[in-house]
Amino acid sequence: MAAGNNMEIVEHLDELRKRLIIIIGTFILSFILAFVFVQDIYSWLTRDLDTALAVLGPLDIILIYFSIAAVAALALTVPVIIFQLWLFVKPGLTPEEQRASSLYIPASFILFAGGLAFGYFIVLPLVLDFLLNLGAGTFETVFTADRYFQFILRMTVPFSVLFEMPLVVMFLTSIGAITPQGMHKNRKYAYFVIVIVSVLVSPPDFLSDILVIIPLIFLYEVSISLSKVVYKKRLKRLENEKY
Which residues share a beta bridge with 54? Predict the structure, then answer.
């Protein structure tokens, strides 16, 4: 019995190693591809700036290019990460769970990309204009490439992660970890956590906080509605299993 368990563990570890190799290989290939076009990506990211970005030393140039290529490679690798994770857990799922969870793969990537787009095209310009107008006539603003791209990351990456909330809620509901009734009952505590998270991930100004809080509260309410749908299906499935 112990030998059988050991063999099963070895098989799981071997499968996990295979998935990790595919993910790492995809990231490396994506990084190389992104680095080939890194100057084009850089030009696109800075197309709306009226001034060239400054660097504080020659080493900063390569570090910035590496950072841009790494973020682009991660974005390209996300669908592969999600798919490989699904393939890893798939053998332990029932056919019905496999069909249901397979829908999470494209939905997860769409939400990830939607979060990036929301942060970059909506939140970033509003916050940047607000901060520049706040210091107009008082400060001479000098953009360094390092600080500017840090600002872009803070305005985009958190949204790509936080936009996954509906899928996480649906998954936790499907395994019985949470219920829509519980989410509704604890809404005020969830709102408090959302405010804290929004303040932590956004720049230290009131407008940025509001622009993060509002979509997260909306996502929480959407998550409750989706949780109700999944919860009803789960109850129906459990009822059918009794007979």
Answer: 144
Give the pLDDT band (50/70/90) at residue 1: very low
C-alpha dist (Å) from residue 106 to 33, 187, 214 = 23, 28, 25
The 10s digit of each residue's pLDDT in 144-202 is 898 899 888 888 888 888 888 998 898 888 778 899 999 999 999 999 998 998 888 77
Give the rounded distance of the alpha carbon of 186 from its chain centre.
24
- Distance separating alpha carbons of residues 243 and 231, to the nearest angstrom: 19
Angle at 138 between CA 136 and CA 140, to 5 degrees: 75
Q: In this structure, are residues 215 and 118 in contact, taking their beta carbons and an 8 Å threshold?
A: yes
